[in-house]
Amino acid sequence: MVPPSKPVIYDTKKRDMSKLLVQYAEGTNLTLVCEVHGGKPKPQVVWFLEGRLIDTTYEVQETQTSTGDTNSITVNRVTLWDLTRSQHHAKLTCKANNTHRAEPPSTTVIIELIIPFDYFAVRPLTVQILGKEKIVSAGKRYKTKCRSSGSKPPANFTWWKGSKQLKTGFKA
């Protein structure tokens, strides 16, 4: 039995992500490639996000050297779609396992997010309309409030009816 090499994690530009700090905008997709050389038997190369298994699909690429030896590279490509703030500082780990007798070699990168437009501005996590009536009648007054949480700075609210913005104290 021969252990595989330590996994190397690349981005789509073939940059070694363990040596870089790259920030991604909230809402973008992140594709990373994990490459592992050698190993007998050939390793299973899998991805974990915060300790949870998220991808087990990998392929083995073999090449012949000039001396006739065979080199193998096991590759697993993962895409995280529509990055969210809950993934900010999340640990993404690639592991290469070919035995249960030893801890598999692994490499971890940390997802760094930036928020588009302003690093310090984050959109609300929740928005709720409070005091809304199920049935309303024309000519009657109703009080409705809107509440949000998780935004920084606090959210500013505007009310709309179709494509028309309404003023505070409006009549609809």
TrEMBL record:
Compartment(s): Membrane
GO CC annotation: membrane
Name of the protein in its database record: Ig-like domain-containing protein
Domain of life of the organism encoding this protein: Eukaryota
Keyword line: Disulfide bond, Membrane
Gene3D superfamilies: Immunoglobulins
Database matches in PROSITE patterns: IG_LIKE (PS50835)
InterPro entries: CD80_C2-set, Ig-like_dom, Ig-like_dom_sf, Ig-like_fold, Ig_sub
Start and end residues of each Ig-like domain: 7-110, 124-172
Alphabetical list of Pfam families matching this protein: C2-set_2 (PF08205)
SMART domains: IG
Its membrane topology: Single-pass membrane protein
Primary site of residence: membrane
